[in-house]
Amino acid sequence: MPDNTAAKIPQVKKSGATPRPKGYRFAYRRKTQDKGLSRMYAHQDKKAYKHNVLAQPFLKWAGGKRQLLPAIKEYVPQKFTQYYEPFVGAGAVLFSLQPKKSVINDTNGELINCYRVIKDNPEELLELCQQHQEKNSKEHYYWLREQDRQDDFKDKSPVERAARIIYLNKTCFNGLFRVNSSGQFNVPYGNYSNPIIADPGVIRSVSAYLARKDVKIIEGDFAKAVATARKGAFIYFDPPYHPISDTSSFTGYSVNGFGESEQIRLKELCDKLTKRGCQVLVSNSSATLIEELYSDPNYEIVEVKASRAINAVASKRGRINELLIHNRYDRKQVNTSIG
């Protein structure tokens, strides 16, 4: 079990001097380095940024879109002014497109905290993730998992929280992100051999993209996330999928869940955005409700095959039918290779 004892404060000989904890110089140096990197990225010419294939998802994510990217890229608009992704998740589509101007959002506060920390403090994050990797064990996992059940969890720094979530995600059973009704992470330990917690190349590349492009990172409701969308914007909605059967629902992604009423509210929002002149793309399951909701002349429904590797039941992993729904905009001809 990891030692929770606070670091002892060394004695200071000079009268009136402020004692500083062990490791202070290193921590200060690391934070200063992170701030320097952020300023460097921010002041570099944004036009000089080139598409970086290393900027890719830094988490395993149920419903992640890496396997569906070739199909999704066929439905990117020919032109768009700004990109919105209100259910960003692990960001596979965002990092594949790497648009110049974006708004990304999610209701999962711990996930959004990871994006913000990677943007502003990549080196400090990598250092903490390396420490977790060196201590990786069943005992260390459950010690970290237990932290969000403690009263002082709110006092953890953003970097500590981000490193915790990344470690838990990379070492938990089947890469699930699941919380209970109290919002506490409750996935068991996965017992993997030598998992890579955080790839430095990926973290630094994601940080560079987020810092050097105009990417606004917000947390909240999907409707509020697109409140500023105007004519010509491209909005990609990837909500929690509607279950195709009563036993297939995955409801643990967030405390609030995403039921039938939310699917209806999303469709109504798509109608409003369509009237506004926005270009809307939605991915969802092939459930009857979804097909019925979008069966009007403003939308085209396309059935695609997707691979699903994250599921608590092994027999339910594999290729399944999913839907891509768009409001009939002009599409861009793109190279669909992932590289």
Question: How many β-strand stretches?
Answer: 7
Proportion of residues in β-strands: 5-15%
- The radius of gyration computed from the alpha-carbon positions, rounded to a whole number of angstroms, is 22 Å
> What's the story with the biggest beta sheet?
7 strands, mixed
CATH class of the domain at 69-107 and 213-244 and 256-326: Alpha Beta
Uncertain spans: 4-18, 249-253
Q: Give the fraction of residues assigned to helices.
A: 25-40%
CATH architecture of the domain at 69-107 and 213-244 and 256-326: 3-Layer(aba) Sandwich
Structure report:
The protein has 339 residues and is an alpha/beta fold. It has a domain at 69-107 and 213-244 and 256-326: Vaccinia Virus protein VP39 (Rossmann fold), CATH 3.40.50.150. Helices cover 35% and strands 13% of the residues. The protein has eleven helices and seven strands. The longest helix has 20 residues, at 24-43. It is globular and about 55 Å long.
Keywords:
339 residues
In short:
The protein has 339 residues and is of the alpha/beta class. It contains eleven helices and seven strands.
